């Protein structure tokens, strides 16, 4: 799981990203980003609505999988970014990990979230 300092708390910041952020859309999910100069590090939120699945177990599994992908690739993420991942499809819960990770990284690259740091 991604550490608490790299996650959103409260809805004010998420609403700002959803309203003013730039979007990169994929097949199962999309990423909205905005620059935040008030913070030194980036933050991530994963939004999975009840339209995706009525079962909280499935929604939480999707959320945990996406947070884990961001945690493993955190050193590649640009600093000072607020990121919101919006999930559209329940198939994200059963998608193979490699396929989900490549789709998220492709969207992150499209949204210009990845750095050249090693």
Q: Give the C-alpha Rg.
A: 13 Å
Q: Helicity level, as a percent range? A: 25-40%
Sheet bearing the most strands, described?
A: 4 strands, mixed
User: Per CATH, what is the topology?
Assistant: Ribosomal Protein S5, domain 2
CATH architecture type: 2-Layer Sandwich
Mean pLDDT: 91
Uncertain runs: none
Oligomeric assembly? single chain
CA(first)-CA(last) distance: 21 Å
Q: What is the C-level CATH assignment?
A: Alpha Beta
Tally of helical runs: 3
- The side-by-side strand order for the widest beta sheet comes to 1-2-4-3
Overall strand count: 4
Number of domains: 1
Approximate strand percentage: 15-25%
Compressed to H and E, one letter per element, the order equals HEEEHEH
Shape: globular
* Computed structural class: alpha+beta
Describe this structure in words.
The structure is a single chain. A four-stranded mixed sheet has the order 1-2-4-3, with helices on both faces. The mean pLDDT is 91. It has a single domain, classed as Ribosomal Protein S5, domain 2. It contains three helices and four strands. Strand 3, helix 2 and strand 4 form a beta-alpha-beta unit. It has 118 residues and is α+β, with helices and mostly antiparallel strands.
